[in-house]
Write a structure and sequence with these properties.
Strand content of chain A: under 5%
Largest sheet of chain B: none
Oligomer: heterodimer
Radius of gyration of chain B: 18 Å
Number of domains of chain A: 1
Distance between the termini of chain B: 58 Å
Order of helices and strands of chain B: HHHHHHHH
Shape of chain A: globular
Structural class of chain A: mainly alpha
Number of domains of chain B: 1
Radius of gyration of chain A: 19 Å
Number of strands of chain A: 0
Number of strands of chain B: 0
Number of helices of chain B: 8
Chain lengths: 308, 214
């Protein structure tokens, strides 16, 4: 492990909440408002951390464990994420499965904590979250399988996310641009669905019948809620880093320039999400599975293109 | 150039999947028009680098017919017959897309095994052509309204056209014009037939033709 590999986790821990700030400011720009300051989420987190928590008497230890396990899983997943052509801090064969299921663990505990409150309302959100993430997972894994096939990382020893993304180069885009484009589109849909953004979920609404992620965390308060918000920001950063690693493989040879380009890519992605949220309405709940199956189909198509 | 052929091929596959997955006839018609335009660019890429005038004319003819005339005829038929906007499938949209993906896999498998005459050709062409033929057939049998059956027919014809374009490189212009004319007349006649069916029976539900037998 070299010092340069440590830069990414530190950057992510520091800048992940800023991404949400950029999204909100982009949306405000489209709506003609000034919007909250870019660093609003940092202030929110600081405020929440100083508060005390309130626990319902019907909840058990699972409810208290949920936010902590979620944040821990997100941080562990962050250590597995490569960035800007650099290898991840921790990389080992088949770590993409570990990454996918660390995010799965985070989601699982959020769902359990929601069910633990005994509120029918939170149960509804948990059910939706479970359904949509079950559909998003094949899209993610098939897309990563296509990238593995493209970069020739097929033996167990080479099948590591760091190795795969290090081998995605501009040259790969030239000779298999169609397939990589399909993978990128599928990963973008997964990114939007997993982070509960429009068109899958509306992060602004507090209307009961439309929420998914927001409804599951209603009962958390104080530091617990801060952990959840921070964990969600880290998750967005992780999935964004994988997406940017596939879409914008800048390889100048200079590590600082590569990292800078990837950072620029992350914030461009945040602006893109803001634009998507400004120009699109949320999909009807029944249409969301169709969109996710569509993303799976795109990934599968990319795999078929590369397998022939 | 072969990179661009791949992009067109992927566009063809995606348009087919959109047709399988979308619920509105309007969308289907427009997407198939797009498919026709994408198809029209194929001779430009598969052919020699210096194009003879007749190839350009053929390209323009294909694009014009499939991208403008067909959709116009179909949208007019839709308006006149007051067809409902949904495609009314027997098989749900998600399952249709899954069937599409499976048939793509079958076409790739089949395409790798078919012995083909002639020089090298883009490897994706044969699977895509087979895939379009499968999708065309599937749309014909799995949709209820007569209009979607025309759409299936057009996809089928597009598949055969793609096959001919990429495999043979150059079809005699006379043959190609004959095929285009046939397709045009077929769509034209089917459009009129739909109008008459809907005036006679108040619907264009092909399923109900069953009741005609004695």
């Amino acid at each position: 492990m070299s010092a340069i590999q440590l830069i990414h986790p530190l950057l992510a821990l520091l800048l992940a909440p800023l991404m949400l700030g950029v999204i909100v400011r982009t949306k405000s720009f489209f709506a003609g408002r000034t919007g909250p300051p870019l660093l609003q989420l940092y202030a929110d987190l600081f405020k929440l951390l100083r508060k005390g928590s309130v626990y319902s008497r019907t909840t058990s230890w699972i409810f208290r464990a949920g936010p902590v396990v979620g944040l821990a899983a997100a941080m562990a997943a962050l250590a597995l994420t490569p960035f800007g052509g650099q290898r991840a801090v921790v990389n080992f064969p088949c770590d993409l499965i570990a990454l996918a299921y660390l995010l799965g663990l985070m989601r699982f505990f959020t769902i359990l904590a929601a069910l633990d409150t005994g509120s029918a309302f939170e149960g509804m959100g948990a059910s939706r979250e479970a359904q949509f993430s079950a559909l998003a997972e094949p899209a993610l894994l098939l897309g990563l399988a296509a990238v593995a096939r493209l970069t020739g990382c097929l033996s167990v020893g080479e099948l590591s996310l760091s190795e795969m993304l290090a081998r995605v180069t501009p040259a790969a885009w030239q000779h298999a641009g169609a397939a990589l484009g399909l993978v990128a589109a599928a990963l973008l849909v997964v990114f939007l669905a997993e982070n509960a953004r429009i068109p899958v979920d509306d992060p602004n609404t507090h209307l009961e019948l439309t929420m998914i992620h927001e409804v599951m965390v209603l009962d958390h308060s104080g530091p617990d809620f801060a952990y959840i918000l921070y964990g969600a920001a880290l998750k967005m950063w992780i999935l964004g880093a994988v997406l940017i690693g596939v879409v914008a493989p800048v390889r100048t040879g200079d590590a600082a320039l590569d990292l800078g380009a990837a950072l620029g890519g992350m914030f461009a992605l945040a602006v893109l999400v803001g634009v998507i949220e400004s120009v699109m309405a949320r999909l009807r709940l029944l249409r969301v599975p169709q969109m996710l199956v569509g993303a799976t189909v795109l990934s599968g198509l990319a795999l078929v293109l590369l397998l022939r | 150039m072969s990179g661009w052929i791949d992009v067109v091929m992927v566009a063809l596959i995606l348009t087919n999947l959109v047709v399988l997955g979308s619920s509105r006839l309007n969308t289907c018609i427009r997407v198939i028009a797009l498919q026709g335009v994408a198809l029209g660019t194929l001779p430009l890429m598969a052919g020699p680098s210096v194009l003879p005038l007749r190839m350009i004319a053929l390209t323009a003819g294909t694009m014009g017919l499939k991208g403008v005339v067909f959709p116009w005829l179909l949208l007019r038929a839709m308006r006149q017959a007051e067809v409902r906007r949904e495609v009314e499938p027997y098989v749900g949209y998600i399952w249709s897309v899954v069937v599409g993906l499976v048939s793509l896999g079958v076409s790739v498998w089949l395409g790798a095994r078919l012995p083909l005459p002639g020089p090298v050709h883009p490897t994706l062409a044969v699977p895509v052509a087979l895939f379009m033929i499968f999708v065309g057939l599937f749309v014909i049998i799995s949709r209820r309204t007569a209009l979607s059956q025309i759409l299936g027919y057009i996809i089928l014809e597009n598949g055969i056209y793609a096959f001919a374009m990429v495999i043979l490189g150059e079809v005699p212009v006379l043959v190609e014009l004959g095929v285009l004319l046939d397709a045009f007349v077929a769509v034209f006649v089917m459009g009129i037939a739909i109008y008459h069916i809907s005036r006679e029976f108040d619907h264009v539900d092909a399923d109900q033709l069953d009741t005609l037998k004695g």
